[in-house]
Amino acid sequence: MSNEVAYDPRIEDQADQERGAAMQALRPIPRISIQAFCETESIANPIERAAADRRMAKAHVKVHMGGIATAIDFYQSAPTPNLIMVESRQEPKELMAALSMLSEHCDPTTKVVVIGHYNDVSLYRDLMRCGISEYMVAPISLADVIAVISAIFIDPEVAPIGRSIAFIGAKGGVGSSTIAHNVGWCMSNLFKSEVVVMDLDLPFGTANINFDQDPMQGIAEAVFSPERIDEVYLDRLLAQCAEHLSLLAAPSTLDRVYDFDQDAFASVIDTAQRTAPLLVLDVPHLWSGWSRTTLAQADEIVITAVPDLANLRNAKNLVDMLKRLRPNDPPPKLVLNQSGVAKRPEISAADFAGPLGLTPMAILPFEPQLFGNASNNGRMLGEMDAKHPIVEEIRHMAHILTGRGEIKGKKQGGFSDLLGKLRKKK
Fold it and tell me: pTM of the entire structure?
């Protein structure tokens, strides 16, 4: 009788979900220098992959081939970094002796992580007594690497960084900003959690109109005065839109040119994430250094598209690029908006989502009266008609993006149920 276990795809799916959840729980690493000395490619590879992860964007990582002996030679003439990671296949006694020699060349503030091949409790205790920060047993994953670094350099007493959700349209005029604002409002209203909406479209942003706000200051003051950015200054720039919702509004004027470096918004976003658990980034439809960096660093990305060919091409380009920029993160979420326009040829939901390899998070029908009335009155959709089927879909999106819900598979023309509800409503 064969002892082979039949392949069960559900086990692999569960493992992928667990790995994804573990990655999502990791916190960004501060600006530190890290050098690793590896004896095997199986250890060097996950460290190099971790170095390329968005959570390690501020850290400077260098991987060398060679173990402790190479590290000793290297630091005889070079200063030690904030963290040294060394792999060793030596037996415990030899390992302890080699680490003792390495310690003679290390600065007192340098942390050391040892990656060994012996799962030995006594060895672990000896290493901890000698001041080693952590002992990892091979094999290791990139999540293990980031988690260990995080445990050493991030104070567990410090409040966790807020979750950033970036919304971008596959094309101009597809409703990405409207959806971003309404999802942010729903999050604050449903979960009574502090939400900051940040309008990054400085010349043409509409968040101030949609929320019926006319603040004297906003995101422009933060971006053009990065040296002043801290929690207190940011709080003065925020406009209160609802009990748990604040807005960092765009000036929406053309009295200056808005050209930015690729990291122009980084300090503003970092500061906002320290003040609120949820940050909604309304990213305009453009491709520049700063928009690319903003999307690459966001915790979650939502692409809004209208079901036509130009949107499909642009969405495919975005999805492919984001997979390359964020290899260790889940793919972006997809929202199909303005579906079912009478007499307009359009691509079915299934045919649109298929080439992208995504299941739409929501498929919203064309409903100009609801959206137009809300926009003209400076109100959210939920304030205009809390029981409208589209509002129910937006609530569902809020649950998904906060980890409280899951995307449900949609059949071809999957918005038919929603259209049915709309017809009954009328």
Answer: 0.81
